[in-house]
Amino acid sequence: MTPFRLTCAYALPESENEEEEMSSMEASVTAVEELLQYQFKKRKLLEEALTHSSYTESASYQRLEFLGDMALGLAITNFVFLAYPELDPGQLSLLRAANISTEKLARVAVRHSLYRYVRHNATALDDRVKEFVLAVQEEQETEFYGGVMKAPKVLADIVESIAAAVYVDCGFDLKELWMIFRGLMDPIITLEMLQHQPQPVTMLYELCQKVGKVVDIKHWRNGDKNIASVYIDGEFLVSSSSEQKENARLHAAKAALEKMAYKVSNKYSIEFDATKGNDGAKQKLYELCGKRKWPKPTYRVEKKLGPSHDRKFVCSVQVESGDDGVVFTVGKERSRVLYASGEEKLRIKDAENSAAFAMLCGLKEANVI
Where is average pLDDT lowest: 142-151, 305-314, 329-338? Predict the structure, then answer.
């Protein structure tokens, strides 16, 4: 990632002449055109898109940013609608929000060094942008919802204003805008990526609601730091701090979810008695997965034993937890997928019941049921 630095694309000191200033913007426009692989018919549009409101000698990107917010949002909406025909409106909304959030767009601006091409007369912007760029460079994985530092809105504004410039220049053709702009937005946040990194605050509240627990996130300030503390049923669980209140809340929720992976808060009651044997175990496991909104259990024949006239079967079952925060712990291993194998049985149906019984016993021992 290119380190933050001032370049000739920023507003020049008053001592520089107007010709040099025009040459600087010309170079910026050319650089962005090369990045987009698109040549503007009206280059003035891109000049406007690369002008901050603090630079008063020319029209700023404010009007374009307004349009770009809407156009890019609709382009992303069309994309996720076509890419995920099986998703409900709620899931589609999450995908759209993740791909047009300030955090996402600011990282687009950082990835492509777009901030280098914006002319402005607000030196405070330089420090905020530089600090955010350095914070992004130190992230171990891409943050969808907020890292150590809250993203400066000016970075997202730059992306939206450039998108609007393309949209207007290509005759308000949304399809062409997406064809030109899609590469800039990579990596597109997918459903799989969201499942791997769900929104921590939302996930915390949903998880606790499912298991009948009450979440309370309390805030206060300590000097220049915002403190967020998570309480579950009135009991303190974890705290986090940040200069921004939203980020403190975000990281506190994330830490709470990590702690809760080991706690009884993941427990869900079904009527299951391990002393009554295998009968009905397969149905009970199916019932549990349905209530937890996990995928259906999957069974397979692991072994076929004995001659054909006296055949015995050993079956296994796999259970995968859903989005409710359950992480199975076996010894030192943690996973969202759990396997169990049953005893030898004369019929496949009975062998599957035996495997389901073993799985239920394991889940009970793990305090999940």
Answer: 329-338
Element (H, E) at 4: none
Backbone angles phi, psi at 148, to 5 degrees: -65, -35
Cα 229 to Cα 231: distance, rounded to the nearest angstrom: 7
Q: Give the pLDDT confidence of 44-70 residue by residue, as tens digits.
A: 999 999 999 998 888 999 999 999 999
The tens digit of pLDDT for each residue in 152-166 reads 899 999 999 999 999
Residue 236 belongs to what H/E stretch?
strand 235-242
- Give the containing element (helix H, strand E) for 340: strand 337-341
Q: What is the pLDDT of residue 20?
A: 52
| Alpha-carbon span 37 to 117, nearest angstrom | 16
Measured CA to CA in angstroms, residue 15 lies from 18, 20, 56, 223 at distances of: 9, 11, 17, 41
Q: Which pTM was predicted?
A: 0.56
Q: Write the DSSP symbol of residue 361.
A: H
In the numeric block, which tokens belong to residue 150? 């809250």
Please count the structural domains in the chain: 3
Is pLDDT of 182 > 50? Answer: yes
Please tell me whether residue 320 adopts helix, strand or coil conformation: strand
- Whether residue 315 is found in the same domain as residue 279: yes
Q: Is residue 1 part of a domain?
A: no
What does each C-alpha distance from 217 to 220, 254, 323 come to in angstroms? Answer: 10, 12, 21
Q: Encode pLDDT of 280-304 as tens digits.
A: 889 888 888 887 778 889 999 988 8
Token pair 């700023």: residue? 60
Asked if 230 and 346 sit in the same domain, the reply is no
170 part of a folded domain: yes
CATH number at residue 356: 3.30.160.20
